């Protein structure tokens, strides 16, 4: 029996960067309530794992020791000018008490998940607290302090594993791209809103890797307003062929939910329908999958999308066990709150055409420039 594991710690959900910061760890608690409500977390082959802290030394598989020391100082409430140079103490990455502890523990969940998959017996792990794809070797950015993804993949590489990273968060996975830009042992694929309109301003299709890594970094930048249909067209035209030809031992999937049309920070227009379809394709691509929560700033939508992803990866159908019960728990301010699925919705007219033109241009570029390097026929 292969195990599906959820990395979960109630204590982690209590952290807050600052009260007005859009990144809210409490999202994971909302999801856990939905998993219970929809009967998705009581199967025999499911395990809930409270992450145990990883050896700090492992963080230097990606980060500099000096940077880790700065994080620890910030954790104690100390502040210095070097911190600003390392991106700490900004609006996006505030210095707050417990900051290092939070980042370390969240990253430990990702690391533990990776090791569970490596050791065998586990088929799927979801760490909703992981997915800090923007953090650099010696700096913080984009709400990210420790790059849990780069650390975990670096150790899997050390153990001889081939890893494919698929990033469907609305933002470009720049920190992970930088970490593995020159190697052919990690295939990095990121679909995101174009850097022309969204932070971090990178992730164009011409960034294809360098040295041995040439052709092993794939960026799929999409236009503002991209909907389920256009997103799926780009995803299905490129991702399965690349993964099938790379033959990874493990797929690490960043399943951020800020592509949703109700997300307040990004400008893509996906619904739960497109998101779920993408998750089910990823699920079919590898026998071992590590999924990471990453972005998602509409808290209730994010909780619902993660719930759908969990159900899909576990091969379960959600059933509302509380259907018909009036009152009681609160799942959000909107009507339909706590419902997992959105009604179908697509963009039409000129907007749609522009989105299609952009997606088709990127698909053609990748088929022309990257597919041949992997021996994939168009
Ligand atoms: Zn994001």
How are the elements arranged and paired?
Layout: E1 3-7, H1 10-13, H2 27-37, E2 46-49, H3 65-75, H4 81-85, H5 99-119, E3 122-127, H6 148-158, E4 163-167, H7 174-179, E5 186-193, E6 217-222, H8 228-246, E7 250-254, H9 272-285, E8 289-292, H10 299-314, H11 349-369
Parallel strand pairs: 1-2, 1-3, 3-8, 4-5, 4-7, 5-6, 7-8
Helix pairs in contact: 2-10, 5-6, 8-9, 8-11, 9-10
The protein binds zinc ion.
Zinc ion is lined by residues 169-171, 256, 258, 295.
Radius of gyration: 20 Å
Which structural category do the helix and sheet elements fall into? Answer: alpha/beta
The DSSP helix count reads 11
**Number of strand segments:** 8
Strand content: 5-15%
- What gross morphology would you assign? globular
Give the helix level as a range of percent: 25-40%
Order of helices and strands: EHHEHHHEHEHEEHEHEHH
Strand order of the largest sheet: 2-1-3-8-7-4-5-6
Characterize the main sheet: 8 strands, parallel
Low-confidence stretches: none
Q: Mean of residue pLDDT?
A: 95
Cα end-to-end separation: 38 Å
The bound ligands are: zinc ion
């Amino acid at each position: 029996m292969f195990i599906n594991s959820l990395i979960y710690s109630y204590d982690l959900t209590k952290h807050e960067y600052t009260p007005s910061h859009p990144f809210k760890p409490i999202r994971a608690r909302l999801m856990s309530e939905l998993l219970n409500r929809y009967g998705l977390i009581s199967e025999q082959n499911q395990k809930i794992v409270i992450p145990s802290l990883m050896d700090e030394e492992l963080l230097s598989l990606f980060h500099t020791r000096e940077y880790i020391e700065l994080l620890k100082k910030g954790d104690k409430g100390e502040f210095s000018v070097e911190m600003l140079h390392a991106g700490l103490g900004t609006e996006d990455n505030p210095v707050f008490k417990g900051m290092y502890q939070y980042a370390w523990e969240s990253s430990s969940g990702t690391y533990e998940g990776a090791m569970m998959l490596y050791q065998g017996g586990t088929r799927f792990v979801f760490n909703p607290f992981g997915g800090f794809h923007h953090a650099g070797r010696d700096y913080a950015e984009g709400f990210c302090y420790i790059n849990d993804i780069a650390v975990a993949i670096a150790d899997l590489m050390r153990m001889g594993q081939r890893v494919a990273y698929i990033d469907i968060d609305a933002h470009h996975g720049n920190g992970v791209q930088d970490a593995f830009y020159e190697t052919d042992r990690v295939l990095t694929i990121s679909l995101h809103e174009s850097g022309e309109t969204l932070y971090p301003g990178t992730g164009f299709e011409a960034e294809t890797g360098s040295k041995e890594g040439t052709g092993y970094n794939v960026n799929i930048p999409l236009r503002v307003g991209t909907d389920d249909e256009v997103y799926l067209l780009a995803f299905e035209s490129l991702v399965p062929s690349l993964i099938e030809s790379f033959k990874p031992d493990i797929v690490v999937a960043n399943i951020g939910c800020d592509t949703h049309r109700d997300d307040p920070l990004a400008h893509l227009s996906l619904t739960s329908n497109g998101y779920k379809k993408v998750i089910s394709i990823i699920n079919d691509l590898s026998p071992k999958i590590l999924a990471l929560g990453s972005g998602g700033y509409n808290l209730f939508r994010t909780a619902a999308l993660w719930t759908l992803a969990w159900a899909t990866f576990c091969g379960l159908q959600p059933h509302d066990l509380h259907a018909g019960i009036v009152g009681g728990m609160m799942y959000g301010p909107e009507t339909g709150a706590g419902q997992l699925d959105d009604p179908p919705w697509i963009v039409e007219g000129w907007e749609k055409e522009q989105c299609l033109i952009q997606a088709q241009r990127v698909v053609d570029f990748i088929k022309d420039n990257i597919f041949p390097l992997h021996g994939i026929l168009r």
